[in-house]
Write a structure and sequence with these properties.
The chain is an alpha+beta fold and 308 residues long. The chain is built from 6 helices and 12 strands. The strands form 3 sheets. Strands 3-2-1-7-10 form a 5-stranded mixed β-sheet, with no helix packed on it. The radius of gyration is 26 Å and the shape is elongated. The structure holds copper (II) ion. Copper (II) ion binds next to loops.
Length: 308
């Protein structure tokens, strides 16, 4: 059976789209997962919009363009090959064709620009916040403070759970990733290595949290993929962003410094513990302190901050 190029082209497009839809289907896990090619699972309205825009606008349009261009190239290479056309065509231009290939990209770009600008504005304008937190980048860790509760909670430093760099080599041999994880053992408490910290940022669920971001030294960036936030931490300047973790999504989320800032850039993770509103109140009332139980309690997915 022979199909016309158009039928074959649309068949290819449908196949590519279904592959993409499967690939971008949201996993129900939190944090990065091996083999992921899509975004991490969204837990905020902003990330919902980013995910939707990417999966249902950008990716289908990109796949469509790739498929059309590939099919046209293959068709042209076969149909107009030298062997089958001993007498070369003398056509130099086609006005209609030139108008179409100028207008179609303009229309595509405009169709992308409108929802893109709406999304940028949605993410950029901070709504009336229920909580303000401040994240300050240091070399190389994050420091968190709660301006609303300054009298109750001291600012604290959140450092990576790791072994000293000079202990990562034994007799000149570098430890493997697995050996480092085994060495950390209970300190890591089953949490992902290079993302786990000794003191996470604690925030309540279902609350608009305004994040003030700055730096003590060089430029860092505060980013949490599942929240859809990424903003530079610039010394002498305060940037702001916001997130609201949806009800029922109490869990631990991870991010990393996302602006190359120096030798330990890869070792300043961001760990966010999202707890119920009642639990957050208790945590504040207790001075926002962590017991050493913290890491142990997160083993096996008991995802509540331990206040003492
Ligand atoms: Cu950095």
């Amino acid at each position: 059976m022979r199909f016309s190029p158009l039928v074959r082209m649309s068949g290819l497009a449908v196949a590519a789209l279904s592959v993409a839809t499967t690939a971008f289907a949201e996993s129900n896990k939190n944090g990065p997962t091996d083999g992921d090619i899509g975004f991490q699972r969204s837990v905020t309205p902003v990330m919902d919009s980013i995910t939707g825009f990417n999966n249902y606008w950008l990716v289908p349009i990109m796949i469509g363009i790739v498929v059309i261009v590939t099919v046209l190239m293959v068709y042209i290479m076969i149909r107009f090959r030298a062997k089958a056309n001993p007498e070369p065509s003398k056509v130099t231009h086609n006005t209609m064709l030139e108008v179409v290939w100028t207008l179609v990209p303009v229309i595509i770009l405009m169709a992308l620009a409108v929802p893109s600008m709406k999304l940028l504005y949605f993410a950029d304008v901070v709504p009336e916040a229920g909580l303000v937190i401040k994240a300050t980048g240091n070399t190389w860790n994050w420091e968190y403070s709660y301006p609303d509760y300054e009298d109750k909670v001291d600012s604290y430093i959140s450092s990576i759970v790791d072994i000293p760099h000079d202990e990562k080599r034994v007799n000149g041999e570098a430890l493997t990733h697995d050996q480092i994880i085994a060495k950390l053992g209970a300190d890591l408490g089953g949490r992902p290595y290079l993302l786990a910290t000794d003191a996470p940022l604690v925030v309540p669920v279902d609350t608009i949290v305004k994040v003030l971001v700055t730096s003590n030294n060089n430029i860092h960036a505060f980013a949490v993929p599942q929240f859809g936030i990424k903003i530079d931490a610039v010394p002498g300047r305060i940037n702001e962003t916001w997130f609201k973790v949806k009800a029922g999504e109490e869990a631990t989320y991870y991010g990393q410094c996302s602006e190359i800032c120096g030798v330990n850039h890869a070792f300043m993770p961001i760990e966010v513990q999202v707890v119920s509103k009642a639990e957050f109140k208790r945590w504040i009332a207790n001075g926002g302190s962590f017991t050493t139980q913290y890491s142990q309690n997160t083993i096996g997915g008991t995802q509540t901050a331990t206040a003492q």
